[in-house]
Amino acid sequence: MVSLSWALVLAGVGVAASECTHPSFKAYKLSSSPLIIYLQNFLTKNERSHLKEISKPRFRRSVVASDEGAKQSRIRTSQSTDLPRDEIVKCIEQRAMEFQGFDTKESQLEPLQLVKYGPGEHYDYHTDWLADPQYTTSFNGGNRMTSFLVYVYVSNDTTGGGTGFPLVDAPRDERWCGFVECDEPFGSGVVFRPVEGNAIFWENLIPGTGRGDGRTEHAGLPVTSGEKIGMNIWTRQAGISDEVRKEGGPLDF
Ligand SMILES: *[C@@H]1O[C@H](CO)[C@@H](O)[C@H](O)[C@H]1NC(C)=O
């Protein structure tokens, strides 16, 4: 009798754990060209604390692209990690795919990556699309078509740590001021505030050409106090080969 009820409890837990329900996030278009869409409440509180918990022991110094492959650099001083694909991580992957329409396949997603910034840490201006053809082979699924940058954790004493897009025109309506810095001088681009749970989605490539869009250049501005954890969700133009996926995905930068 006891073991039967335990079996029922365990079955119940199994069902609950594999359930993927999406929060009702809101989407606001910030720019048409390049396409940039701001997503409010893209991650739930539960998802955020889960990601923070599972990533805790995994962070190591971030790397950047170079001619000789991945290497550490003063231009990117954060800590990074990929994530084990548990049910919650797969649910977030699902959400990111569906947002891009039903033609986006799971095999196009790179493994999700978390990036942690402490005081003084930053990532200089860069694009997520890759200029070096060695990183955009068909084994790697071509180039990075889209990016989501999701704010997973922002400590309550965080200052700095915005995400700056200097080549994108700032929106004018005051309602943006919760999401972007509104006291920047006009013409200096857009600086998104780090707001926990929210995300920025953008297209990296010029539509119809496959060429990288230089206007998507952006930076993780230095955190001046506190701690910020962001998540990268990168979608390739085509499926990433199984061999590359088995090795943990094409790149960690
Ligand atoms: C900020 O977070 C810390 C650690 O979680 C907590 O102890 C503190 O009360 C919080 N402060 C405010 C103003 O919310």
Report a brief summary of the structure.
The protein is α+β, with helices and mostly antiparallel strands and 253 residues long. The chain is built from 4 helices and 16 strands.
3D structure, described in words:
- This protein is of the alpha+beta class and 253 residues long.
- It has a single domain, classed as q2cbj1_9rhob like domain (Jelly Rolls, Sandwich).
- Helix content is 18%, strand content 29%.
- It has four helices and 16 strands.
- The strands form four sheets. Strands 1-2-13-9-16-7-6-3 form an eight-stranded antiparallel sheet. Strands 8-14-11-12 form a four-stranded antiparallel sheet, with no helix packed on it.
- The longest helix has 17 residues.
- The termini are far apart.
- 31% of the residues are buried.
- The structure holds 2-acetamido-2-deoxy-beta-D-glucopyranose.
Write the layout of secondary structure elements.
Layout: H1 2-18, E1 26-32, E2 35-40, H2 45-55, E3 60-61, E4 64-66, E5 69-71, E6 79-82, H3 87-99, E7 113-117, E8 123-126, E9 144-154, E10 159-160, E11 163-165, E12 190-192, E13 199-203, E14 218-220, E15 223-225, E16 228-236, H4 242-246
The structure holds 2-acetamido-2-deoxy-beta-D-glucopyranose (NAG).
- Order of strands, main sheet, comes to 1-2-13-9-16-7-6-3
Helix proportion: 10-25%
CATH class: Mainly Beta
What's the number of structural domains? 1
Any descriptors?
253 residues; alpha+beta; Jelly Rolls; eight-stranded antiparallel beta sheet; four-stranded antiparallel beta sheet; 16 strands; 18% helix; 29% strand; globular; binds 2-acetamido-2-deoxy-beta-D-glucopyranose; 2OG-Fe(II)oxygenase superfamily protein
